[in-house]
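It would be a great kindness if you could assist me with a short task in structural biology. I am sending you one protein, given as its amino acid sequence and as whole-number tokens for its backbone shapes. I would ask you to consider whether the tokens describe a fold that such a sequence might reasonably adopt. The full record is reproduced below for your convenience.
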Amino acid sequence: MSFDPRPLVDVAVTVAKEAAALVQRARHDAVTAQVDTKSTETDVVTLADRASEQLVRDRLAVLRPGEPVIGEEEGGSAAVEGLTWVVDPIDGTVNYLYGYPWYAVSIAAQLDGVSVAGAVVEPVSGRVWTAALGHGSFLDGNRLSVSKATRLDLSLIGYGFAYRPERRQRQATTWAALSTRVRDIRRAGAASLDLCAVAAGWLDGYAEHALGRWDWAAGALIASEAGATVHLPGTDPAFGADATVAATPAIATALRTALIECGFANV
């Protein structure tokens, strides 16, 4: 019998909705209490990040007992053999901290390191993005499809910045160069949702360095199942070691060339 990942989507949606509700209820207390930092002073983590991840771990332990979980806040085994859950309890924590409504709970199931099911739930809007490998991707039950863009110079491209100032400076140089080759660029601050935006055709492409597995595990599957060409970290040496890139297929080659010429691999 062939493996059907769709029941895993149901689990991801159920748990992500519960976590999203907690995140929204807890926002005031989470951002007025002590806010900790991680890699730099700009890389923040709130009480709600930790509470959300604990809720997800607790619920998965009941619904999918014995299956390992990798989360942004509490970590987990780096091993990716078998079925593993990958969790970002709040993707876009800085947005969450400021009340900017572009943040989400992201949960994916990976089989031997490959995403097979995922859900991205937005606490503010309630939108639910989902995908199962081989079965398409959806926003609130409506099938998604990437944009029909065919020209890079008329494309809208999303991007992201790392937290370390010296790397941001190099990235800024790349994005300044790319800005002359595209219609416009956007920085929204939540990788999972930027990948979902490519799936919906709200962005024609998206590129970012230094994402964790939890940042892209669900969103990249949603983009890919909507028809995007997706490069995950380490899959295209010309992009550098830790780049994630997604684009509608008709501009994917042109975007790759432009990114490389603008120094994307050297940031």
Observations:
- The CA atoms of residues 54 and 145 lie 33 Å apart.
- The helical segments are 6-25, 27-32, 47-63, 93-98, 165-178, 191-200, 213-225, 249-261.
- Residues 6-25 form the longest helix (20 residues).
